[in-house]
Amino acid sequence: MLRPERMSKVSVTGSRGVMPTVIETVHDLSLVHLSDYDGSWEGFDNGDPIEGAENASEKLVTVRALESTLDLSADEAEPGTLEDGWEQRLEEIRTRINELDDRRAEINDELRQVNEKIDRVAPFAELGIDLDLLSGYETVDVLVGEGSLEEVEAAVSASDDIRAFETFTGGNVVAVVAAPAESADENPIDDALVGVEFTRYEVPDTDQSPDDYVADLESRQRDLESQLDEIDAELEEIKREEAGFLLRVEEELTIEVQQAEAPLQFATTDHAFVAEGWLPTEEYDRLVATLNDAVGDSVEVEELVRADYNDEGYPTRTEDVDHGGSGGAEETTEEEEREVATQEAIADGGTTAAGGDVVTMVDEPPVIQDNTGPAKPFEFLLRLIDRPKYSELDPTVVLLLTFPAFYGFMLGDLGYGMIYTAAGFLMYSRFDEDIIRSLGAIGMWAGGFTMLFGVLYGEFFGMHFLGEVVFGGSPPLHKGLQPVYANYGQTWLMVSVLIGLAHLTLGYAFGFVNDLDHGVGDAFLENGSWALLMIGVWVWIFSHHGEGVKPEFLYTSFGNGSEAAFELGFTGFATEVGMYVGLPLAALGFVTMVYGEVKHYGGLGIIIGALESFNVLGDVLSYLRIAAVILAKAGMAFVVNMLFFGVYVTGEDEHAEWHFATGHMPEVGATSHGHEVTEVMFGGLLHGGIGLTLLGVIVLVLGHIVVLLLGITSAGLQGIRLEYVEFFNRFYEGGGRTFEPFGGIRSDDEK
Question: Which of 247, 535, 644, 729 could in theory staple to 79 by disulfide, Cβ–Cβ 3.0 to 4.6 A?
Fold first, then answer.
């Protein structure tokens, strides 16, 4: 669908006594996106949480903390059942898990200290000196660290505070034993080593040898790690036994907290409440019927508005929502709706009145994208930018129809398409995450079009035999890489421009529809003027008026004869069409476009409009990247195959054809494919002996993998760019609110 699902704003009014029942009923339905009361009505305040909300919130925090400790996720178990005494069971589980978690924290802390001690004693082991010999002296100083022995000895020797010293080394570790002079300050070695790059190590407080000390530490390390394993095993056992119970408790407490805190969004008095929210229009009758069954006449349910909305969230067209009548449509202005929306509600024991239909809480309607089936996965591409606003057209269907076609047209290879399709199917079928499944579905669509165009191009991993097998000779399409088919390369330039014109015109049409709420005139100035300017300019370009400065292929690509890739008989518009249709259309579009800019920016709009008018050329020419990718990817695949198979040429100049030597490499002058071989472009690794053949296999496989991956980054990114930058800029802003119904997740991803 091109429009998001139609939404209605409803009001539920009733006495405070039935509010808990109403909340529970609406929660179970999971249909209504609640609006927040802003406290602006005289006599109404935001409601207070239902009794027990704080206690339920604390328990919910506890349960989620326990799940985090157990690393428990919702997809690891099905929620169990709750029986009497579940709170006591939850407390027992909490106590058991917290004790284990506290013990694990203590062990981890001790293990960290043991590891640090092992790291600290490692340098002393290199010295091979017992640790008790490195400390405890009164007449000499001992310092152990890592640094340059030569620099350390030079610095200590030059110190007047040291009368004698000796050094010991092991690896990069240096130990200095020094006798201080009588006039020396405390720590003379430290003073001497100022300016020397030296890392000091603290001597462990033990009389053991370094090896014995490390052995004891490693023994303790293993013991602590064993204890951790036991604790983890016990926590894993709790997880297996209690996962379903904890998930069920979380579910129940979540519901309880949601329901208990719902009055915070209501407008309430001592005796009454008013709740408002959005729901799909088609669900209104079900809401009314369910509430009537639950509380009878104790509440009044009213559909306040069913409308189209502008980009500020105000209705531009309000429909008659009297479900007992035929209904019509009443046009309202934005200012009127603002006034209505801000009227004060009157507290009168459970009713609201403001002299007519009252839109009591002004907020934008949430958005449910109404796409099903094949178009659904392409919502992911749209949301990479943003969700459409309620007032905007939803272009998801256009993405379905254009993006895979762009992708397949640019790559066009049966072999690559099969791999893309297979990869997409694996992503779609093997994963549960919506994003990955959407990417998989998009991959299958893109792969399908790549296979389709691959058959039409007659290519299989860059090889051309498919055209001979399927079409008995030349396929209907060629990428235009070879000289004999060079006219196709020019034709793809023409096709790219025509695709751009069609794509952009559709974008302007969407923008026109989006802007109709501002009036037909404004919609035309914002969109129609640009479309006229663009179409007029390009009608003139395709005409014979001034043809001497235009490229010849504009008139030959779809004409007649050997120069035409497709003989459609189009040799350009007549000179008169360019002069009396193209130029007047462009002039009308330019004048109205500039007028629209002047309305926005005043006199400066003339300059802005004049400068921006060149966009009708640049935006269309941007689609030439389609032709560029076709030729680039064809060239890359050709080079990979040429390196392995080799290529020989038949014919000359513009009639030259390139052939892969899949069997043997013919000599120049021999006959192949009914024509004389005129050149061997490259002999091919396949024909160079066993060693070169093995190297060629590696080149062939890796080369096609590179082309395959670059196909995603080039064709994929270029296709996305054409959608996002060129197409969406004509009409799309995004920024719609996600539909989050009270009571559960009913996003449009799960409809």
Answer: 247
Sign (positive or negative) of CA dihedral 447, 453, 454, 459: negative
For the cut 80, the answer to whether the pLDDT of residue 101 exceeds it is yes
Can you tell me the distance from the alpha carbon of 608 to that of 602, in angstroms, rounded to the nearest whole number? 10
Question: When comparing pLDDT for 171 and 569, which is higher?
Answer: 569
| Per-residue b or e along 449-474, where b marks 16 or more CB atoms closer than 10 Å to that residue's CB | bbbbbbbbbbbbbbbbebbeeeeeee
Query: Which of 512, 482, 376, 496 shows the shortest CA–CA distance to 435?
Result: 376
Backbone angles phi, psi at 370, to 5 degrees: -95, 60
**What is the pLDDT at residue 312?**
52
CA distance 288 to 50: 24
Quickly count: other Cβ atoms within 10 Å of residue 654's Cβ.
11
Q: What angle do CA 612, 618, 624 make, to 5 degrees?
A: 165
Q: On the CB side of 733, how many CA atoms lie within 13 Å of its CA? A: 13
User: Does residue 341 register a pLDDT over 50?
Assistant: no
State phi, psi for 630 to the nearest 5 degrees.
-55, -50
Contacts of 651 by beta carbon, 8 Å cutoff, 6+ apart: 484, 657, 675, 678
pLDDT of residue 742: 92
Start-to-end C-alpha separation, the chain: 14
pLDDT band at residue 614 using 50, 70 and 90 as cut-offs: very high
DSSP states of 697-749: HHHHHHHHHHHHHHHIIIIIHHHHHIIIIIIGGGT----PPB---TTS---GG
Whether the predicted model's global pTM rises above the 0.70 cut? yes
Classified as helix, coil or strand, 50 is coil
Q: Name which residue leads in pLDDT, 457 or 341.
A: 457
How would you write 242-284 as a 3-class SS string? HHHHHHHHHHHHHHHHHHHHHHHHCEECCCEEEEEEEEEHHHH
Helix (H, G, I), strand (E, B) or coil at 592: helix
Phi, psi of 653 (to 5 degrees): 55, -130
Tokens of 242: 């209690």
For residue 195, what are its two tokens? 């300016």
Residue 317 in tokens: 């067209």
Which pLDDT tens digit goes with each residue over 44-73?
Answer: 899 999 888 899 999 999 999 999 999 988
What DSSP designation does 175 have?
Answer: E
- Yes or no: say if 441 and 377 are a contact pair by the CB < 8 Å rule: yes
Do strands 267-268 and 315-319 pair parallel, antiparallel, or not at all (unpaired)? Answer: unpaired
Please compute the mean of the pLDDT values over residues 181-198 and round it to a whole number. Answer: 79
Residue 751: pLDDT band with limits 50, 70, 90: very low
Q: Give the gyration radius of the chain's Cα atoms.
A: 39
CB-hemisphere CA count at 13 Å for 129? 21
Cα 384 to Cα 3: distance, rounded to the nearest angstrom: 19
Predicted pLDDT of residue 157: 85
pLDDT tens string 723-741: 999 999 998 888 888 889 9
Cross-strand bridge partners of residue 199: 146
Phi/psi for 266 (5° steps) reads -95, 160
Question: By C-alpha distance, which of 498, 577, 558, 482 is closest to 534?
Answer: 498
